[in-house]
Design goal:
The structure holds two protein chains of two kinds. By secondary structure, chain A is mostly helical. Helix content of chain A is about 60%, strand content about 0%. Chain A has 16 helices and one strand. Chain A is elongated, with a radius of gyration of 23 Å. By secondary structure, chain B is mainly beta. Chain B has a domain of about 110 residues. Chain B is about 5% helix and about 45% strand. Chain B contains one helix and 13 strands, in the order βββββββββββαββ. In chain B, the strands form four sheets. In chain B, strands 6, 7, 8, 9, 12 and 13 form a six-stranded antiparallel β-sheet that branches. In chain B, strands 1-4-5 form a three-stranded antiparallel β-sheet, with no helix packed on it. Classes of the chains: A mainly alpha, B mainly beta. At the A-B interface, strand 1, helix 2, helix 4, helix 7 and helix 9 of A face strand 1, strand 2, strand 5, strand 7 and strand 8 of B. Strand 1 of chain A pairs antiparallel with strand 2 of chain B.
């Protein structure tokens, strides 16, 4: 019988997710015909005729070079449009993130914090992520106002756990050592969530700025998870949390690194975590701050 | 911070790869069929102050091996594959591969992942002219997306911009890239 396919039919889908994000390379737009204010006033007037992303960017690309007074006069139209549902509201919410990128955003958005916080309670999860993103990007971040808003949303908000992860990430970025952050993160890490949400949470916690031993312990519990995705993420999070976290988990990581029953990526990443921490420790030793654990 | 993504992807792209491999005897008396979907993410590396060390591009000079100091190479991690999925429907003349999911930079504040959902039909009804057609694609407008069949590019989207505003608008789901192909691409077997 004729063998039809002698070779291997292979299909590969590729997306440039982790591309070299040179954030900060602001491309210029072509000639702009609509002012930012006009764009969002039009959006308020007729949200059915939603304009294209190119038109939106044509309007929002102007924000970076506007005077503070011009931004202030534009904000009412933007925040009115934020109240719209669907992509119209998201377009306006996106414009708020562009304002938040400005060096004077802390001042410009100081009076808008309640409106930004209100986005956390919108049904469309994209509004929640915008609120988190704007709070993180404000310069400076008004921590005394933002931290209680985010922690209250995480601890008492009615949203699903998955919708609270971006706000939790914002909380960690803004106030990694705050008691509210510890309480919020421990609450989320203690919830039964799906694999994706668990890995996102572990990633969020995996920063050297988080010093809480309780959070380290909560993350470390996932080092015994049978799900490989969760296990791999937990190893990497512990590694990123730094030498103190790795030392606390030294025994478990060593066991994972040597266990022939573990998948190769698990063994390799566990070994990397141990090796990198040894490097860190050597640095600390040079500063006479402590001795290295045995590799 | 600067980022370098998946080194296993085709240069100059750095990417996670979702793959489907179909081994098939497509003759009348098929003796075996085998199908497998797998997901691959390469290492994402983060670089801080002092990078790029040579003033233009990331290079070996940036790899100082000291983690968590925000200077030159700072951290590396692998993105989660928890939300990467795929399935294959196979018959005697074609295979339909559905790849879909999401992914996020594991070293960044995770506020919104990129997403993709594509269906590609590989048709070998004419054994001398195997073809592939993307019958449905839907993905975020950033980053670039490519579909290969037998190492031939059958779909390619190049993101037009690479700046914060554009990326943010895409990750908020504005302007998703959506469509289908009307013509098939010849994809000779290797």
């Amino acid at each position: 019988m004729y063998l039809a396919i002698r070779g291997v039919i292979r299909m590969r889908y590729q997306s440039v997710l982790l591309a070299p994000l040179m954030l900060g390379m602001i491309a210029c737009c072509s000639a702009q015909t609509t002012t930012t204010q006009q764009y969002f006033e039009d959006l308020n007037a007729d949200n059915v005729a939603l304009r294209s992303q190119a038109d939106l960017l044509g309007a929002t690309d102007q924000i970076a070079s506007m005077t503070p007074a011009a931004v202030r006069s534009t904000l009412p139209a933007i925040f009115n449009a934020v109240k719209l549902d669907g992509d119209a509201g998201i377009q306006a919410a996106f414009a708020v993130t562009v304002v938040a990128e400005r060096k004077d955003s802390g001042d410009l958005l100081a009076d808008r914090i309640p409106e930004i916080a209100a986005m956390l309670n919108r049904k469309d999860p994209r509004f929640k992520t915008v609120a988190a993103l704007v709070f993180v990007c404000m310069k400076p971040v008004p921590k005394e106002k933002v931290v209680p808003i985010l922690s209250s949303f995480i601890l008492r908000g009615a949203a699903a756990p998955a919708d609270k992860i971006a706000p939790a990430g914002a909380l960690i970025a803004i106030a990694p050592t705050a008691a509210e952050t510890e309480q919020s993160l421990l609450y989320l890490l203690g919830l039964p969530v799906d694999t994706e949400s668990r890995t996102r949470l572990l990633n969020a916690a995996g920063t050297g700025q988080v010093k809480s031993e309780k959070i380290i312990e909560a993350v470390a519990r996932s080092l015994s998870d049978s799900n490989e995705d969760i296990l791999l993420t937990a190893i990497q999070s512990i590694a990123r949390m730094g030498p103190v976290a790795v030392e606390r988990c030294w025994g478990v990581l060593s066991k994972l690194a040597m266990d022939p029953d573990q998948p190769e990526p698990v063994r390799r990443l566990a070994q990397d975590a141990l090796n990198n921490t040894t490097d860190d420790c050597r640095k600390l030793s040079r500063l006479h701050m402590g001795a290295c654990p045995a590799p | 911070m600067l980022y370098k993504g998946d080194p296993g992807a085709v240069p100059p792209y750095y990417a996670p790869i979702q793959s489907a491999r179909v081994y098939s005897n497509a003759g009348f008396s098929a003796q075996w069929n085998f199908k497998i979907v797998w997901f691959s993410v390469g290492q994402t590396s983060q670089y801080g102050y002092g990078s790029p060390a040579n003033g233009s591009t990331l290079s070996a000079a940036d790899q100082d091996g000291v983690p968590n100091d925000c200077y030159l190479w700072n951290q590396s991690a692998y993105a989660s594959k928890a939300d990467m999925h795929g399935d294959i429907t196979l018959n005697s003349t074609n295979a339909t591969t559905h790849l879909y999911g999401s992914g996020a930079n594991p070293l960044e504040f995770d506020w919104s992942p990129i997403t993709w959902d594509t269906t590609t039909v590989v048709d070998w009804s004419n054994l001398d002219y195997v073809t592939a057609k993307v019958t449905h694609y839907h993905h975020t407008c950033y980053p670039s997306h490519i579909i290969y069949v037998n190492d031939w590019i059958v779909y390619r989207y190049d993101a037009p911009r690479n700046d914060t505003s554009y990326i943010t608008s895409c990750l908020l789901g504005l302007n998703p890239i959506d469509g289908y192909q009307t013509a098939a691409t010849h994809v000779p077997c290797n």
